[in-house]
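Hey, I'm writing a tutorial for new members on how sequence and structure tokens pair up, and I'd like a real worked example in the thread rather than a made-up one. If someone can provide the structure for the chain below, I'll link this post from the tutorial.
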Amino acid sequence: MKVNRAVFVKSSPELALCPPPSKPEYAFIGRSNVGKSSLINMLVNQKGLAKTSGKPGKTQLINHFLVDDTWFLVDLPGYGYAKVSKSQRDTFQRMINGYLLKRENLICTFVLFDVRVPPQQIDMDFIGFLGEKGLPFYILLTKSDKISQTKLSESVAAYENKIAEAWAEMPPMFVTSSPEQIGKKEILNLIGEWNDSFNNEKK
């Protein structure tokens, strides 16, 4: 699947204010500074659609982008460490949970991990939450271009081993790189297939 056009629609502080759930939707989430904005921009062929920042906690709302007038890409606030108050973190968590659990047109959540960083418990807890709630998700290991192939293989194995401690079946996982566009074709092809299924079900 190719992306021809992507536009920002709105930022919402809560689920009730999100756009009408009329189109298939895919959410992207990860800890702060995991490379989420760069990956989103890579997928839609636009350098500045999702705002990148070196400052953790930049995304603080549910951001909807309409892609080719047929599906929504959603940029969610990061979980984990960010230079915000505890009350703000709690607000983010309620917002994220409310969206993930109740957004009826959400097809899949893409959870981003920085492949250079060893598996973190907060990441394992988050995908555990998704698994317990029966929410479909894919793991995207980001920034693969920033380490050697040897280190990359070791890191992927470390993630697989850590996840296997709690999961009987390994969740699907892709290695990605925004500068080198690694993983782009696979992710967009998946979304294209899911879009077809969504539209066929509505007929």
